[in-house]
């Protein structure tokens, strides 16, 4: 008995359709990740698209309005809020275009789907400053054109079949349009991800089980080594993939886009007067952060080292070929604020870094995602903030891995904990050593008071520079540099101590070096090091040991 044709999707049916698409993408994440290629590696495309879809569906589940247009509008907001990486931002614009095409309608009809896909294609192209064919942009455009041409068929079943067929054909042609894909022997990862999403929808309306993942794409083996070399030596490749979510009231999208264009390449700036998402590859993430704080409020910040991504890309393929070394007994995950601090954590052996900290605490889910991505079954989590410890502990319930939450309350404690790791020891001994190392470090944090208060006899007014020592308000001072010196004076003096000054995104290197000279003159027992931390909100974070 044949199934009746589908004339429209209600809000609930649309939610189920996208949920199935997300589930199918989840089963194919590794296959999509496997075709990430230079010159814009930009993290793991499949993972980024999946996490973007997960945020999309969370917002859809919260939507109480049964209208399909309302559900799509909620999805659009969730996609923009949760967009990860270049591919995730473009995907958020595709979903936003679908929402505008349906425009609040009670149901999605074939005409509405065609209109939505047309808007989706236009939005995706507008999002990219230098659109390139042979990418996800080509795929969404050719899907839209095919569905528009077939719209006379009158049912959503046939239109989805047309969309899937067009997507697959378009993805197969991407190497003929983009030289780097042709050299790599792969298709475009973003386009493949979009095709997988559409395929999941088609499986759903046909009533087919989402069981078997698609076959993995192959990559020309010699190209992997050359790609790693090119990432290390290519002078035009910017070093850091920087993403910001800026909140405000009257944000000027075009002005922000113009300013971001001067910071690097691979620029995507999308959103509305209340919420703007920025993606840029740059050598100066601090300038991007300053731009964001100047335009509005930073809602989310994410900075990745592109060259490190390239190295991980090559490593991933080696693992897929079965050549990877045996997993270490213990992996580590640290919550870190600031791209400079992230570099420090990776340099001392941290397996995975989660962006977050004061004012931007990561969710338990983000911590779980990082834990699941670790190679070892035992994972030590370093919250590095007292307000994140509980979320890290909650993560134990959401993973099958053995999670060890080390009670680090600051980033300097997290660094000390990582330095205490001894590869030859058993996991229990290593975790114990990490806990012990935290107690050997004093942390000074310099920021500004957000309100007037009096704590422990210290009175401060809103906007005052304050020093916090090991989570306790210590003093207020006329400047950040004087606050550091005052806090150091309050610490017990040892015969020899090391003070490491991690200076923030809004602090200049010259100011930090001048402060270091002042400390050396005042405190003869201190050896002083200066490191760019890039952390927002805190002028200095000082580790004393």
Give a written overview of the molecule:
- It is a single chain.
- The chain has 545 residues and is an alpha/beta fold.
- The chain is 49% helix and 18% strand.
- The protein has helices spanning 11-27, 29-33, 45-62, 68-82, 85-102, 110-127, 136-149, 156-177, 179-184, 189-205, 221-233, 253-261, 285-295, 306-320, 339-347, 364-372, 389-394, 411-419, 427-438, 480-489, 509-522; strands at residues 240-247, 264-272, 275-282, 297-305, 330-336, 352-355, 378-382, 402-405, 442-448, 453-455, 458-460, 465-469, 472-477, 497-503, 526-532, 540-544.
- Strands 13-12-9-16-14-15 form a 6-stranded mixed β-sheet, with helices on both faces. The protein has a 4-stranded antiparallel β-sheet with strand order 2-3-1-4, with helices on both faces.
- α1 (11-27) packs parallel to α4.
- The radius of gyration is 25 Å and the shape is elongated.
- The termini are far apart.
């Amino acid at each position: 008995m044949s199934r009746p044709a589908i004339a429209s999707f209600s809000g609930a049916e649309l939610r189920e359709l996208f949920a199935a698409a997300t589930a199918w993408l989840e089963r194919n994440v590794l296959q999509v990740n496997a075709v990430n290629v230079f010159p814009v590696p930009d993290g793991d495309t499949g993972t980024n698209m999946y996490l973007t879809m997960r945020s999309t569906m969370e917002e859809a589940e919260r939507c109480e309005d049964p209208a399909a247009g309302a559900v799509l509008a909620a999805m659009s907001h969730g996609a923009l809020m949760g967009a990860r990486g270049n591919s995730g931002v473009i995907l958020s614009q595709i979903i936003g275009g679908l929402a505008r095409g349906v425009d609040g309608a009670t149901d999605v009809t074939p005409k509405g789907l065609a209109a939505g896909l047309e808007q989706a294609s236009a939005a995706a192209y507008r999002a990219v400053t230098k659109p390139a064919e042979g990418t996800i942009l080509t795929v969404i455009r050719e899907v839209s054109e095919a569905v528009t041409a077939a719209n006379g068929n009158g049912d959503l079943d046939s239109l989805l079949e047309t969309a899937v067929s067009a997507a697959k054909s378009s993805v197969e042609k991407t190497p003929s349009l983009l030289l780097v894909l042709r050299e790599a022997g792969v298709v475009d990862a973003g386009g493949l991800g979009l095709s997988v999403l559409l395929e999941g929808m088609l499986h759903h309306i046909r009533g087919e089980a989402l069981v078997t993942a698609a076959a993995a794409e192959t990559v020309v083996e010699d190209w992997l080594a050359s790609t790693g070399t090119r990432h290390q030596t290519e002078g035009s490749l910017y070093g850091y993939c920087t993403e910001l979510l800026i909140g405000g009231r009257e944000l000027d999208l075009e002005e922000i886009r113009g300013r971001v264009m001067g910071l690097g390449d691979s620029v995507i700036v999308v959103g509305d007067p209340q919420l703007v998402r920025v993606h840029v590859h740059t050598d100066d993430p601090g300038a991007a952060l300053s731009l964001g704080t100047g335009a509005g409020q930073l809602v989310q910040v994410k900075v990745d080292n592109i060259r490190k991504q390239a190295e991980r890309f090559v490593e991933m393929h080696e693992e897929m070929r079965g050549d990877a070394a045996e997993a270490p007994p213990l992996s580590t995950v640290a919550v870190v604020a600031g791209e400079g601090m992230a570099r420090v954590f990776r340099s001392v052996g941290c397996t995975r870094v989660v962006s977050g900290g004061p004012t931007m605490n990561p969710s338990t889910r983000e911590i779980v995602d990082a834990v699941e991505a670790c190679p070892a079954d035992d994972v030590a989590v370093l919250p590095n903030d007292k307000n994140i410890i509980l979320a890290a502990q909650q993560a134990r319930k959401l993973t099958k891995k053995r999670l060890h939450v080390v009670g680090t309350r600051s980033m300097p404690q997290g660094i000390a904990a990582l330095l205490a790791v001894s590869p030859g020891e058993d996991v229990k001994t290593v975790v114990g050593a990490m806990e012990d190392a935290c107690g050997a470090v004093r942390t000074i944090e310099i920021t500004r008071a957000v309100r007037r208060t009096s704590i422990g006899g210290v009175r401060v007014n809103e906007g005052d520079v304050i020093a916090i020592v090991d989570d306790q308000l210590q003093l207020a001072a006329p400047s950040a540099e004087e606050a550091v010196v005052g806090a150091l004076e309050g610490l017990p003096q040892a015969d020899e101590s090391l003070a490491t000054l991690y200076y923030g995104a809004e602090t200049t290197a010259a100011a930090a070096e001048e402060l270091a000279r002042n400390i050396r003159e005042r405190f003869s027992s201190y050896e002083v090091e200066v490191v760019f931390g890039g952390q927002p909100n805190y002028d200095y974070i000082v580790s004393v040991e």
